[in-house]
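Appendix B. Raw example, untouched.
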Amino acid sequence: MPEIFVGALRLSWQRRRALFDIALIPLIVSLAIDVLVKPVLIDANYTVALQSNPGGVFIGLLGYILLSLLPWSAFAVGWTRHCLLGPSLAGPSPAGPSPAGPSPAGPLTAQWTSRELRYFGATLKLLLVYGVGSFIAMLIVLTVHGGQMPTSTSLVLISLGLLVAMGYVLTRLCLVLPAAALDQPFGFVTALRYSQGKGLSLLVLMLLLFLLAFFSGPLAAIVIGQVLAQFFDQPFSIGPDLVLRLAVEIASYACSAPLLVAMALAFSRLTGWQQGGALRPLP
């Protein structure tokens, strides 16, 4: 799917102004969670706390992840719908456009409705699959080595193989995310059937975009941090830590945009989805 890879990058760049508008409010909420809520939920010296109170650390980390997913889900739905439907149809109520026709283009912002809640739920299901898969992978590693942790070399090889297998499954299941954004009834079984025979292509596509985001994200955060530091220098400093957090949030939202577009385009191609039309019959 090389054209999807190129198309995701091109579309994200061409619609960068819309990307900014849609991401603005979720980004601010994410920053507030990171600055105000994270220190309450996660001890700064969590390595020490993990030894004395592992349950509390786990609950705090879980709470932080769940809260962080809320604004990201609103952004992901708004951005996915904008890229596939355009600005005029990206924001009707979850019930769909009115009988009178498409809703007029309004302010291009993220919102929180039952649609975003369904997307949030689909994301949690994917994380649950990942967690269960990781647990099973750990059991396999321990079983193969008689309950003992393997050597570093074999551990790396086994982990790499299990990661590839898990990534193969997860990239196929990820079709449930654009489906939730487009109000399509879509479960894991349906996602597996539509992606039959395309799992390897999806894995390579997402891996390339993930690696691009992984390497460009930190670089973008450094550049953005330097730019922000010029605007918020003494005597109006907002503090280097806050500047860094803001730069990381901006970079993470910007780098996740092509991934969301790629998932949406792959969903459209594999299912035959078209605006106002039915999906292709299941294979």
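End of appendix B.
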